[in-house]
Amino acid sequence: MNKLKLFVGSAVIAAFTASFTASAANKAPGSGPNPFSDCGIGAALFKDTKWAAVTSNVIWDVGTTAVTSATASPETCSGSKVVAAKFIIDNYDNIIEEIAMGEGTHLTSMYNVLGCGISTQTEMTVDIRSEVAGTISKTDYQEKNLIEKSSDLYNVVNDASVAGNCAVI
Amino acid sequence: MLFKIFLVLIIVLTNISKAQAYKNQALPFSDQTITAVAESNKWQKLIKIEQNSLLKNSEFAVHSQSFYFSNIKTLTAKSELINTLKALLADKAYITPDENPQCRFPARYIWLKTQFDLSQIQTVTCEKFLKWSKLPNSKSLSLIFATGYLGNPASYYGHTLLKLNSDKKTTLDLLETSVNFGANVPEDEDPITYIIKGVIGGYDANFTHSKFYYHTQNYLENELRDLWEYQLNLDKDDYQFLVAHIWELIGQNFTYYFFDKNCVFRMYELFELIDDIKLPSIKAPWVIPQEAARAINSATYKNLPLVKKTIYIPSRQANFYSKYWQLNKLLKSSVKAIVLDIEQLKLLNNSKMQNEDKLKVLSVLLDYYQYLLAIDNETKLENEGNYGKILAYRYQLPIGKAQFYENVPISPHNSRPSSYIQAAVLHNRKLGNGYTFKLRPAYYDQLDAESGHVKNGVLKMAELDLEYLSDKLSIRQFSIFEVLSVKSQASGLPQDDYDAWRLYLGLKKQEDNCLNCTDFTFQGSKGWAVPLNNFTTLGAYFGGAFVENYQDRGRVYASSHFTLNQIINDNWNFMIDIEARKYLENEQISLFNYRFETRYKYIVNQNYFDFRLALSEHETQLSLGYYW
Q1: Distance separating alpha carbons of residues B478 and B468, to the nearest angstrom
Q2: How much is the pLDDT for B337?
Q3: Which of the residues B395, B397, B404 would you substitute to probe the A interface, choosing the one with the greatest number of A C-beta atoms within 10 Å?
Q4: B361 contacts B477 by C-beta, under 8 angstroms
Q5: What's the mean pLDDT when you consider all of chain B?
Q6: B508 shares its domain with B605
Q7: Which domain CATH number covers B570?
Q8: How far apart are CA B115 and CA B570, in angstroms?
Q9: Are residues B116 and B140 in the same domain?
Q10: Which residues does chain B have within 8 Å of residue A7's beta carbon, measured at their own beta carbons?
Q11: pLDDT class for A169, splitting at 50, 70, 90?
């Protein structure tokens, strides 16, 4: 009985893996869905608050948490995408300031987590900056919460003209 | 893919029966060899035996059963070695390779291979471990030192953690894995319970891991603490061995002791695992984070310095101050005008203002509002609104970074040791000549703050000051704690003025011309400490104290202090403190006290001394101090 269960379990895992691989291979660069709205992970992962004073003892393994909690497609909620989304929301102010400047450690780290090659980063920044400049000056920007702002930024990065060069997008 | 999984499944199932036998199998090694290895220093470090005893359970630092193959109740170094070897040699199948003993205890496996012939063991790929450690792409280890934080008693003296560095060329990758050791404190724990349980070992503690940005956000942006990164010079084998051992420890339960078996102790212990690291021993029975920074910077590895690179990572507040004080007068006034009225952003429309200057002003303002958002929740909405307007304005200007020079303070490892002893001769105009002896476990007073400390501030815990006067030995002062918080770099902008506060709890002489008059004192005051320039700071404080009734003066007094801190040069400074005191329960009694103290520091072969001269109404004291 146990052997049968193991066999069936393995078959399911294999089928899952195969479909995930196929799906990832067929994705259109820059057109992926947004983990903020499409993952079903909810407030547990993306909190609408800036960092609160927390004890520094929490085990953080965002990738694993995300995969096991996700209810949408595996591509949308794969570890890397959620790690990228989590990085954006947790470092939002730093990233948005560095996009304005055109450089910075948070911006570089965002590109790293998205798997964007160094050669495309400068062009991406110019592209993203132009989009952000448009949204940030609108009156409703201030009224948006952190999740909405981060989600918007994720979309802007996702839609950047050279985002296809990023492995995770 | 399906076929592969099916094949693996068949192998797994056929091996299950073999695995049943491993518990009873005899090991192919002599008892003498096993005993020798069990008694070896390295094995005992790997299984976290605190002392060289093989018999007592209580000396195992980890109290999680999952850390041992032996039953934790009957655990010995030898039994654990035998059971580890049996587990490694067993032909047992696991559902995932990550459950294999090689993957659960990769450091034990690496080291035991050098002690026993384990060539018959088939090496497995430990995917979880490799994913976590990013091996082989991660190449080096850094010790991170977070400077002290007055918002949390456990962080007064700073904190340490580790970072695993990949071989990327970027200067700071915020997605690197970091490792922390800390107590598991329940949310909403009250401060008294927190302190008591922290001191007596009432909390479990764990090694945990997270992306490094978790700490940069928490420390740099939220708690406004600077970070210092010390990149270590370890070769590939030692680095991988250390990382493997850290993996073994993640999530295991230790007992946390605030004073000694704390984060620094456990980090320090990790480095001691590598034979080629020559670390100085920590002298004091307490372990202070800054001492770890000092120790690893004087340590060697294969006859080279253990630390190969030091990086300063300033907090948002440090960035704000550094940039603000670099602005010229005109730009400072622009910043002030905009802070007072955000509509004055239009000042930056002035075509005569250089673009570079506009970027500087905006950069300072962004840091200023982020700093306010970190310290003041009550004005959050207003500050967020202003921050948003400045950000929007910034986006109207071209891409580019405001040019400021990097203001790197002296690294904490280059400052003096944390503990202090002092011997002094004393002349009391009423009681004659005598001697005093002072012991301060940590950390600094108003005259000896250095890097990682608050200039002109005070942070003391358990300072004992004894006197031998008129043939009597008595306590002059014993501070349970004393804190003076000042903002020596404050900008003077709204919500960032020069406010300061002071708290003292302990025993203190009621006045300087009495014997046997050391009584309980709880003192608090609030005021301002205003730097006139880089050398001179004036302070004014108002508050009072609860004391024991002495000579029917009463138990409560109000007081005001006026202070001057003056730096003469890098080695020499002084302070004056004038106090007016009024006893509230006996209106006829008012006192006027003064104290002058000057300090000259002297360094000989990395030994830190100071000479001090202190004067008060009835006393003159000449002292020699030593930092250790």
Answers
A1: 15
A2: 96
A3: B395
A4: no
A5: 88
A6: yes
A7: 2.40.160.40
A8: 54
A9: no
A10: 6, 9
A11: low
